[in-house]
Amino acid sequence: MTATASSRSLNLLFVAQALGGAAPPIIISLGGLVGQQLSSGPTLATLPVSLYQLGLALSTLPAAWLMQRQGRRNTYVLGAMLAIVAGVIAAQGIAHGHFMLFCLGTALAGFYGACVQSYRFAAVDAVAEPALHARAISRVMVGGLLAAVIGPQLVIWTRDALPLTPFAGSFYGQAALACLALLVLLRLRLPPASTTRVSGPARPLGAIVRTPAFIVACAAGVVSYGLMAFLMTATPMAMVGCGFSVGEAALGVQWHVLAMFAPSFFTGSLIARWGKTTITAIGLVLIAISGGVALMGLELLHFWGALIVLGIGWNFGFIGATAMLTDSYRPSERAKVQATNDFCVFGSVALASFGSGHLLHTAGWNAINAGMLPLVALVLLLITFHAWRQRAATTVSP
């Protein structure tokens, strides 16, 4: 692609990210609260959020298959169309007090979520120079900064729009955002899979996933995203349980999502200067620090402060891990490796979001924040060992 075409594609992906990225804050901030109202028990409260994450994880492989055969744009358009249907179904589930219908709506939204998550890989496809990949990823993910405002504000503006069915208006709003995204995606042009640069024969997937480069990048992505989703899902319920309002919980999620994407303005530059491994490690350390902030108390400052630090940590950890992943595959292997990585990442996110409600109810807020620290430490050890091996190999090379 020419520089002008690349820039246009990145701009469209940025807008699509802003609109599509607003859906998860809506589902996550309201899914547990609606689940508490409609489900038969507190342990099922986060099932709608978990099914969204599960739908996202299960959609990564078929979405990648469709992208390979029908192109990214056509797959993204299909995802937006399904998101419109999903928002209407979820709203109808609330209106009729039908828990499983609401869950069906959030689960269907998972396919759209898988498409939105792959926008970062589409950014890589739109840029010819490998040295610019991290910057392209960051540029598109800056759209999440707008999503951080759009999603939670939509919740605040529309949660009581239909007085007899609280929260239903927010899911109609989610469908409306998907309509806008559909119009943007119809204008997107990306290189078709058949003409994308290819270097060397594709290795078997089993051989790739056993390489240290893939293992470390995938582990960093799993822990960064999994822990973020775990705590982000539990926090609104914990806040409401401590006497804070739904609006305060939604604003907490908004600050969190702002912190998730605001660093994207400079994360690519930081990676270019300090390296993917270093920025990923810093992100994991910040995620651990967020747990420490949450353990300091139960005031609004502690909840919001933990969410903000968690968001920044996710940004460094996840963008760094995504950039690290691009080193683990050849261009001819990218589709299957990207899909496998996202399946692992969002499969863990689904488990984390489902487990958060149960653990919050049984173990408590402090326990779930303390329990994440060993996982962070383990991945930091993996990253450190991998970096040491790379430096040693560079030293002994002629």
UniProtKB/TrEMBL annotation:
Domain Major facilitator superfamily (MFS) profile positions: 213-398
Keyword check for Ion transport: no
Regions that span the bilayer: 12-35, 47-67, 74-93, 99-119, 140-159, 171-190, 211-233, 253-272, 279-297, 303-323, 343-361, 367-388
Coiled-coil boundaries: none
Gene3D superfamilies referenced in this protein's UniProt entry, alphabetically: MFS general substrate transporter like domains
Keyword tags: Membrane, Transmembrane, Transmembrane helix
UniProt xrefs under InterPro entries: MFS (IPR011701), MFS_dom (IPR020846), MFS_trans_sf (IPR036259)
PANTHER family assigned to the protein according to its UniProt record, in alphabetical order: MAJOR FACILITATOR SUPERFAMILY PROTEIN, MFS PERMEASE
Protein name: MFS transporter
Organism: Comamonas jiangduensis
